[in-house]
Amino acid sequence: MDSLPTIVLLPGAFITIATFDPLLPHLHELGFPTIVASYPSASSAEPYSASVTKDTEHIRNRALLPLLDDNGKDVILFAHSFGGIVGVGAAVGLGPKSREGKSYKGRVLGLFYVAATILPEGRSLRDLTGGQLPPSVQQDQPIAGMATSDGSTVPHATAAFTTPAPKPAWIEGEFSGRRRYLRTMQDASFPPQFQSMLVQQSGVEWDVVDIDAPHEAHSAQPQMVASLLQEAAQRWTST
Predict the structure, then answer these.
(1) Which residues contact 171 (CB under 8 A, 6 or more apart)?
(2) Which one, of 234, 186, 232, lies nearest residue 208 by Cα?
């Protein structure tokens, strides 16, 4: 590849962007530029005003569009867990076919999910878990409107889990053949059976790759994850 795409990494809820620290050296060694994004709903000072839509707009306007429009960079979205809702909503209309014939050069080449949530438009994460947040989530901690989770390092606005998701990019036809899902087979918090259900219910085709790793596969097996990302990037860049 003459020019490698920029990898925009989107973390899960309740964790800092340091979750990607083990992965970044491997991506940089392969030549990939990287940007690690964060969400307004994480450690929010105004938790009751938070929403999935606001997080999505933040990623689109602060991370994606500056790369695509201002710098003409191609991008691959790397979404972990909660990042599968927010980041992919931000990529709507930014795929290769949508960008053809435009004066902008940058495109979102593909969607790379790692144990990430696949959520249809109009549904919330709470809807996905039967109308209740998981027992591991402690609401109104450390303050009203925020939540923590077992082992969490960052509190998150509860509204991020109860407000409806915007339209996702994965439903768009131009991402056909450009969706990869790493199914984490040793995942205690997001069991592989649940991940399989999400993939199936999406109604679109994913390139599913099983990896013998826990939920944060990019931390546990960073070299393997980087290699799988490189493989996908080579294919998406050449088509």
Answers:
(1) 120, 121, 202, 203, 204
(2) 232
Cross-strand pairs, 184:
211
Structure token digits, residue 144: 């009203």
Which token pair is 70? Answer: 């201002």
Burial of residue 184 (number of CB atoms within 10 Å: 0-12, 13-18, 19+): buried
Listed residue (177, 169, 156) closest to 235, CA to CA: 177
Query: Tens place of pLDDT for every residue, the chain, 239 residues?
Result: 458 999 999 999 999 999 999 999 999 999 999 999 999 999 998 999 999 999 999 999 999 999 999 999 999 999 999 999 998 899 999 999 998 876 768 999 999 999 999 999 999 999 988 899 888 899 999 999 999 998 777 999 999 999 999 999 999 999 999 999 999 999 998 999 999 999 999 999 999 999 999 999 999 999 999 999 999 999 999 87
% helix, strand, coil for the chain, step of 5: 40, 20, 45
Cross-sheet strand order for the sheet of 34-36? 34-36, 6-10, 75-80, 108-114, 179-184, 207-211
Radius of gyration of the chain (CA): 17
Residue 12: both structure tokens together = 């899960």
Q: Which residues contact 234 (CB under 8 A, 6 or more apart)?
A: 1
Q: What does the block give as tokens for 191?
A: 């069991």
Per DSSP, what are the bridge partners of residue 183?
210
* DSSP state letter for 33: -
Cα of first residue to Cα of last residue in the chain, in angstroms, is 12
